[in-house]
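User: I'm curious what two different proteins look like when written out as structure tokens. Can you demonstrate?

Assistant: Sure. I'll show them one after the other, since each token string lines up with its own sequence. Here's the first protein:
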Amino acid sequence: MPSGRGHGRPASGDEFTVLLEDVVHEDAATLAVQRIAEALQKPIRVSERDFFISASIGIALSGACTDRPEDLLRNADLAMYHAKASAKVAMPSSTRA
């Protein structure tokens, strides 16, 4: 991942959280998300059939408004739901550091 290590884990149901360490600039997070989105666009072949995955991705950066981990996760959830509504990758201004 750009500018540091990354960790992923299921959050709940069909949602996943990816934590990028040592991200200094918003551009590094955006690049990581673009790489994830590109990887998900590739078909997955199972028993000679192609399956496609779609994803709504929200970005939240830590900063002055996110002292607690649960605040960061809440902001990421809000960004993801905003992305679902707009069918894009989203980073609402309230989640920027």
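Here's a second, unrelated protein for contrast:
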Amino acid sequence: MKITEERAQRAAEQKQRMQERLTKVRELKDKGMTNRAIAQEMGISESWVYQLLKNGMPVLATTKTADQIAADLEERGKKLLNFAALLRGDKP
């Protein structure tokens, strides 16, 4: 198995575990448990329980970083195009 395939498999497994954790948190909340009790039951922090209930599945850091990089590059590209237009004397 290639390294990229292994990484993809690990990422899919991690996403599955996170989905299972989210489902469990929601089930416990539906049973009337407090965030603190859920956190103690599952061995995670209370703030993590709150975030899962508020936002659902967290975005993996690598995905978030890739999206941020793409947005930054797009913004920089726009600035460069505007600068080039100024150098050519184009009107805004």
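A detail about the second structure: The helical segments are 3-30, 35-42, 46-55, 61-88.
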